[in-house]
Automatic annotation (TrEMBL), chains A, B:
Transmembrane segments: none annotated. It comes from the Bacteria. It comes from Histidinibacterium lentulum. Keywords: Oxidoreductase. This is Ldh family oxidoreductase. Belongs to the LDH2/MDH2 oxidoreductase family. GO terms for molecular function: oxidoreductase activity.
Length: 348, 348
């Protein structure tokens, strides 16, 4: 049975578990807050769902609970940081602090990271500059390769996601968070859990035939959006978030679902762009609201009841889950109970 | 009949025509060079093909031949420029100069432009930072709306393209240049010219049914890559390249194919990112070559003879056309002859 858990309750549990796994209170609180935001925002495969895996990785020596994050390269508007093999949440929080501080003066800043790990949903980091009146843009190398180059069958590319957050006025901020594949691999796993068939277009097998049985996903190849275009985007994002930072990309990417002990050397980057470097921020936010209204007012295709904006579902889901709690399915609750017993902490 | 014209011959003709339309020799040379590069690179719908339209726009007062380009906002790593309603080629060349000069110090620079016009293919500008050992990233608001928001039928969005260029060593640079729609509108027009049917997936009509007759394109809606994802990308790119710069986006976009007299207020932005701010440039270029080799060496789907990299066709096409000339079809040659007669200049 699904149980609805208040955000605060979940946040405290996650912090408790991370603390028991060796994280300092400050690090545990920071990471618990971001993981809870993932769940509040509806990214169910990227929040507390990942907690047992993160703790397994810390215990197996694949990830450092309290990393020393070092600035390796520094220019007025750029930095390259070494995440000390810490959780991506902590590494990219630091990257965001640096990027925002720089962009206040320079107008824009680009901060890359190497020696990091899975950071949860991309929107968390793109959204960080919003509070400062800035636009955020985040790209990551995905934590497992499930896609070949276009026309190929070797798994050399990941879902390499991009997220962009743009401030608005009365409307929710525009927040795009998307994989460069038609379906994120998490959606495949969800379909498998539910015994559902996948739509044609998500995956093919190594003969090029559509693969719709998610139980056979390990034989399959994720398809990029727009065919060669999505392949190109995934490749470019990998070069910028991985190769340029001295982080893993291509054949070097470790499948973090299959292997909890190896260092992943995950790469990401974050751009903070100060709206005030271009125009009056209030005027800009009003203009974003106007674009929002234009899209909403469009005539619609038959059967379509509403035009949606990127970030709208996120805002609705967060409001709803703050009010009624985060729905956690029974199998996940069982895993969290087991984890709590293992760690010797109070359960959720 | 198709005639093959040497790049130098084409460049001189275009410069002659632009000069006769009132451009200074320096401006005409700059624009002719970029337009010829478009043709050399295989972007046949974005090079000399556009010359009669550009000159029509200058004569109709819709575009200024010799614009005064002004810096409106300036920070260490950002600038907003007013293109003085000049050709996008001249405006974004200036933007690239500013971005490259800033990025040499700051590591990255983001330069936006308003009051610009169609600039030809996106790759031209993304490629400009390459010569300085930098990565380039260019985004534009397209010059006509052919796409609705996802689920809608009002034409509020354009093909808003992105181009990214990344330096390599022995291999051609990685150059991605893509519309956020499945097909660029130019491909629809090409299909119409040839009397061909469009594949399902390029366009739908206002009932949501596939539209495959390119002669009916004016009733149709271009489809985004990846459904809502491509819609989201197009929207985000429009907000960043248009709205943030005080340029047209959404309902404000003028269809420059249908209207040569109205000011389009086209917006674009260019990012220059200095590789040396992250790692040794030679080491980076070698790493890009290695990724190139990894993709090439992938096993292939049945029937696939070669894995392609973004920018590979561009490099091959340029080499081939430098050797054997640019193929110009008879109808285009006729239009260029008519233009030459109108301008009182020597024909091509």
């Amino acid at each position: 049975m699904t149980r609805h858990v208040a955000g605060d309750t979940l946040r405290e549990f996650v912090a408790r578990a991370l603390g028991a796994a060796g994280m300092t209170p400050a690090n545990a609180a920071r990471m618990a807050d971001l993981m809870t935001e993932a769940d509040l925002g509806g990214q169910d495969g990227h929040g507390v769902f990942r907690l047992p895996q993160y703790i397994r990785r810390i215990r197996a020596g694949g990830m450092v609970a309290n990393p020393e994050i070092a600035v390796l390269q520094d220019r007025p508007a750029t930095a390259l940081i070494d995440g000390g093999n810490g959780p991506g949440h902590l590494v990219m929080s630091r990257a965001a602090e640096i990027a925002i501080a720089k962009a206040r003066t320079t107008g824009v800043a680009w901060v890359g990271a190497r020696q990091s790990n899975h950071a949860g949903p991309a929107f968390l980091y793109a959204r960080m500059p919003l509070a400062e009146g800035m636009i955020g843009l985040y790209v990551a190398v995905g934590s497992a390769n499930h896609m070949p180059p276009w026309g190929g069958t070797d798994l050399l590319l990941s879902t390499n996601p991009i997220a962009v957050a743009i401030p608005s006025n009365q409307r929710p901020p525009i927040v795009l968070d998307m994989a460069t594949t038609v379906a994120a691999y998490g959606k495949v796993k969800t379909a498998a859990d539910r015994g559902e068939t996948m739509p044609v277009g998500w995956m093919i097998d190594r003969t090029g035939a559509p693969l719709t049985d998610p139980a056979r996903a390990s034989e399959g190849l994720l398809l990029p959006i727009g065919g060669p275009k999505g392949y190109g985007l995934s490749l470019i994002f990998g070069l910028l978030a991985g190769t340029l930072n001295g982080a893993a990309f291509g054949a070097d990417v470790v499948d973090f679902n299959a292997d909890s002990a190896s260092v992943t050397n995950t790469g990401h980057f974050l751009i903070a762009l100060d709206v005030a470097a271009f125009m009056d921020p209030a005027q800009f936010r009003a203009a974003v609201d106007d674009i929002w209204a234009q899209m909403k007012a469009s005539n619609r295709l038959p059967g379509v009841t509403d035009i949606r904006l990127p970030g709208e579902r996120l805002a609705e889901c967060r409001a709803e889950r703050l009010a009624t709690g985060i729905p956690l399915p029974a199998p996940l609750l069982d895993r969290l109970d087991t984890l709590a017993a293992d760690l010797g902490i109070a359960p959720l």
